[in-house]
Structure formats: structure tokens, C-alpha cells
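anyone seen this seq b4? input:
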Amino acid sequence: GITESNITANIVDVNNNVVTDRNYPVTLSITGERGTWSDISGIGSRIKTTENGEARVRIKSSTRTGNIKVTGSTAGLLAGSVEVETVAGAARSMTVTAAPDKIVTDGVSKTTVTVIVVDINGNSVGGYNGKISYTTKGPILPAAGETMCINGIAAFQLRSIKTAGLCEAEITSGDNIGSGKVVIETKAKEAVKLELTSDRDVIVSDGYDSAGIKAILEDEDGNVNTDLVIPVNIAVNGNGTFDDGTVGTRTVTTNNGIAT
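predicted toks r here
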């Protein structure tokens, strides 16, 4: 958004010689969103008159990489154009993503973590090469590792274990470009059982004391399947009632795999 470049429009004859004996009004325009005029805002067309066969303007880069195309034209002559490439600045930080960001707790499902080194404006720095290191927290493997960043991009894979939960991968570099993090969720497999738990094992038989009961949908490894929303029938037998004093069967719906 700061760097500038000089653009020169020359009026030439059929042999490419500069025509200096006449001044021409030249209409100049910028194509695309990668640059603007240096001395005025925007990218609209402007007219410059040649002196000694040439007209000069300055353009300024935007904060995005790509090409700036400047076209010049004047009545009765073939139009001309020039392109200036805008490139990324110095490596300043990194972006980190995981695809997919949710994997099943089967011990074999994997996610690919991609690291892109970027400049201060978020442009990928294609010329960066260096080593990056990563560590993980939560139910995912490996716990740590290293890989090479080639042309500004690095990628590595992480694998689930048979425990559900939120995992975090943190990536660092030794080149003062900061660090990055990404969160991956390991999710339960298909629910195969309904587990009932109580927050109290013993209550007083006074007609007032109570205990909370949870119905939990679990996979074969005991992980809660949080995706299911289903009705669950809860029956009370023996010397007790529901909290409203009724007995028999009550239907409750699970939320995040749990009904209370």
C-alpha cells in the first residue's frame, strides 16, 4: 500500500522511434484492484499530455498481491499497456487451518493441518523456506513434530485416538514470524449404549431429598455422542418418584448427547 512505480507512456512511430515534435493527450487507466494512482485517489482514467514524446505517471501498490495493468491510448494511434507485479512483503506471521476440523475417535481418522506464512497484510510469502515445529494438546497424535515450509506453505497430518475432546495444535518457527494455533475436535463414533448416572448414591427417605439422573448416549469406547437429539424414556421403580411427585415413565430429549 506504499511502494510506488513510475509509468512512462511514449508516442512512437512505426519503427519504435519516439515522436518528439508534437504533444499528444494520452488517456491512462488502471485495470484491477492491485494498485492506484500515487497522487490522486482511485483507479479512474486520467489524461496526461506528452512532452518530448512521453508522459509520466506514478502508481502505488495496494495491500494485495497480483498485477497492476496500466493502459494508455490517444486518438488515431494503437493503444499500449504495461503490467507491474505486486509481490508479498517480508514474512511476518502465519495462518493455520485444519481440514477437516472434526474427526472420529476411531484411532485412524486424520486431519491435515496447513500452515501459510504471510506478510503484514496477509499475503502468502511464496519465497519463504524454513523449518516449523508443532506441539499438540488433547486426544490427538503425534504430540510433537517438525516439518519444512517450502515456498511459504507447510502441511502435516494428525491422527485421532479413541477419546473424544477438543485438541489444539500450536505451530512455531525459528525465524521470528510468530506462532499459530488451530483447534480440532475429535468426536464420538455411533452411539451403542445408554448410560445412566446419578449425582448421589444415597438420599434420605424423607420425601424431600433428591438426586439428579443423567441419561448419556455413548459409543463403544464410552465417548458421549453429542450429535444425537433423541427422546429417552426414563422409568422410576422402587421407593421414589420424579421431582414432581409422579411415578411411572417420563420422556426426555437429549441435548448434546445427554438428557436429565
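The longest strand covers residues 110-118. The mean pLDDT is 93. kinda curious what u guys think
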